[in-house]
Design brief:
This protein has 170 residues and is of the alpha+beta class. It has helices at 25-49, 59-83, 121-126, 149-165, and strands at residues 12-13, 19-20, 85-88, 92-97, 103-108, 114-118, 128-134, 142-148.
Length: 170
């Protein structure tokens, strides 16, 4: 981490040097999860009004299934948020996420083409932003949700500065 030194201290830094996203992102995830399962619940009401579609299945089983999946998703949100971490290394930016299916992506600074900071309505209320790193490869794009706005802007500026000095034939 000698080349990239953030101006502001990291929000959540563990012993291995990984920086975590804001715990406030749980609220955004809980809201999004509730909206998605709410849409499923509204669709389930349609099946209640048209019993000829599934006459052999008790109507309440669909609501129980939706409710159970919603509850499990809500319980997993804190674990998913805690598993999202990133690290600024000498030659690349690394992001990891996932509880069961873990994914780790390293983006070399010289390959960065665009660094975007965006904010949805719930994230804006919580003071959070989403940092999107775009490269020429479609599969290596990285989206880091739940970063405090000031930290996201500082990261963007630091990454742009390092990427400009490390252009790899672009």
């Amino acid at each position: 981490m000698s080349d990239v030194k953030p101006e502001h201290p990291p929000e959540v830094l563990d012993a291995d040097g990984w920086e975590g996203i804001s715990p406030k992102h749980r609220i955004d995830e809980w809201f999004s999860t509730t909206v998605v399962y709410g849409v499923f619940a509204v669709a389930a009401v349609f099946f209640l009004w048209t019993p000829e579609i599934f006459p052999f299945v008790p109507r309440w089983t669909l609501f129980v299934a939706i409710g159970t999946l919603w509850l499990v998703s809500m319980i997993l949100v804190p674990f998913r948020v805690r598993a999202m971490k990133y690290r600024l290394r000498d030659d690349d930016f690394v992001f990891r996420r996932g509880i069961i299916f873990q994914r780790q992506v390293a983006v070399p600074y010289g390959r960065l083409q665009l660094i975007d900071v965006s904010r949805g309505p719930v994230a804006r209320l919580l003071g959070l932003s989403e940092l999107r790193l775009v490269t020429a490869s479609a599969s290596s794009g990285v989206v880091i949700p739940g970063i405090m706005r000031d930290r996201a802007l500082t990261l963007r500026d630091d990454l742009v500065a390092v990427a400009e000095t490390r252009r790899a034939g672009l």
